[in-house]
């Protein structure tokens, strides 16, 4: 079985791997455009301009779910399990963590409960940065893409300037008509845009944040119960001082 000194020796590298992923996750969550897929279709009305029709796709880089799988993956489990093993070795004070009247975690050491409060609090800050869907459009789930999609494509028009004459005064038998030329924009093509997004809905985000808050409260309550453990007496100071001063073993 692994010894405590082996866990302590491995802790720095395991923590560094987890922190690196955490920093990367924060950077990605700060770039909402990484989560958006969009197609743009330009369709000209005139037959002689059909060859100008275009269809472009801008793919997304990732989704919130993919990033969370990475954030909460092997490095996360290795780091948190290591901390649990270390604190379990050092401490005898333990308590169950209860959520909604049920035991969620059993026999958790007091020192690890304190660690969990800190780490889960850090996770909450990351979850707060999760980008959410833009309000306004109606979003529907696209299971084929694993993303949300706008229910209807946004429509706009491509225009060009044209000159149109307007008769100000009609012609007479003595004078020609008075005509003025005006410039106006005429639609020449329709542009339809359909948007996909790997972001979360506001409801998804708020529900996860609520669960994080409930877990943090449960951890605090469990730590308070664990700290009621009677102190184990271990008179090491006298033994050390006698050895250092007198060489007594």
Q: Please, could you describe this protein's structure?
A:
The chain is of the alpha+beta class and 249 residues long. 43% of the residues lie in helices and 29% in strands. It has 6 helices and 8 strands, in the order αββααββαββββαα. Strands 1, 2, 5, 6, 7 and 8 form a 6-stranded antiparallel β-sheet that branches. Strand 7 and strand 8 form a beta hairpin. Helix 1 packs antiparallel against helix 3 and helix 4 packs antiparallel against helix 5. It is rod-shaped. The protein starts with a helix and ends with a helix. The model has no long low-confidence stretch (mean pLDDT 89).
In short:
43% of the residues lie in helices and 29% in strands. The chain has helices at 4-29, 64-71, 74-90, 110-128, 202-226, 236-246; strands spanning 36-44, 54-58, 94-99, 102-109, 139-142, 147-150, 154-169, 178-197.
- End-to-end Cα distance: 29 Å
What structural class do the secondary elements suggest? Answer: alpha+beta
Number of strands: 8
Treating each run of at least 4 consecutive H or I residues as one helix, how many helices? 6
Low-confidence stretches: none
The residue-averaged pLDDT reads 89
Radius of gyration equals 33 Å
Percentage of helical residues? 40-55%
Shape: rod-shaped
Q: Which helices and strands, and how do they pair?
A:
Blueprint: H1 4-29, E1 36-44, E2 54-58, H2 64-71, H3 74-90, E3 94-99, E4 102-109, H4 110-128, E5 139-142, E6 147-150, E7 154-169, E8 178-197, H5 202-226, H6 236-246
Antiparallel strand pairs: 1-2, 1-8, 3-4, 5-6, 6-8, 7-8
Helix pairs in contact: 1-2, 1-3, 3-4, 4-5
